[in-house]
Amino acid sequence: RNMSSAGPEGRKKMRECEGLIDSLVYYIQGAIADHEPNDKATENCVCILHNLSYQLEIELPESYAQSIYVQRHISNNDKTPGCFGTRSRKVKEKQQDTPLPEEKSNPKGVESLWHSTLIRIYLSLIAKSTRNYTQEASLGALQNLTAGTGPMPFAVARTVVQKANGLPSIRAMLHVSHPTVKRTAVSLLRNLSRNPSLQNDIAREVLPDLVSVLPECVPGCEVACETTASICYTLFNLTQSSSHNARLLLSAHGLPKVLAISINDSNMFSKASRAASVLLYSLWSHTDLHSVYKK
């Protein structure tokens, strides 16, 4: 567990170690099957996998990049594609609709890190474990896997939301008392909400809960402030292109909270205040709601 946080070279060596990832996944599967999701060894295994999934999209070797990304004709004007292809805006826009190749039924080693089997294991641990570190590591692993803009993060996001029905388990983590578990759950939802095809599902399932955990003003503690900012950016993603979702925010009585956070006097430049202001600006772009806002 300690070695897995030793930086890029350490992660690379551990990902390449034959049988290591498979053993970790095997142990966790056994713990879940035996209804023992709270033992310390399971926590350690999940924390290792969490660390090994960090920056996975940009650290995978070329051989995996070739199999994950659909090769496209790239004109001479575009930059030469690197390990994961060009990062030009045009290709980025197309990537979100690019599915992963069909999953292997029996993944080995590093392939397991983004496989739906492990995604479901994380969701199961979020739902069944009562250890805060296990919950946070499971949420954090999913956050890592959904952090990029390529096909793999978007495919993982679709698995979490649509195939594995993971939103109820993640939503429950918004209401736990442990501040870093809550922060990681919100960060995961923020990543998921960047996928336009999932925004309505997420809004329907968790938007009222996001509003309910918004504070009445900017919190004093840094973790709570980061969480508040992440909630505002998640709500921004969900409402930016949807007047219907903006109405959901209104009906959940979110507007007074967002206003109060945006005009916080004690620290005008706080992350949370800026995020709330961005959200307000976006909400105002829905001209059909102006009369409702004024009321």
TrEMBL record:
Region (Disordered): 80-108
Keywords: Cell adhesion, Cell junction, Repeat
Family in the record: Belongs to the beta-catenin family.
Localization: Cell junction
GO cellular component, one term: cytoplasm
Protein's UniProt keywords contain Repeat: yes
Domain of life according to the entry: Eukaryota
Taxonomic source organism: Peucedramus taeniatus
Name this protein carries in UniProt: PKP2 protein
Listed InterPro entries: ARM-like, ARM-type_fold, Armadillo, Plakophilin/d_Catenin
Signal peptide (residue range): none
A GO BP annotation: intermediate filament bundle assembly
Basic and acidic residues bias (residue ranges): 93-106
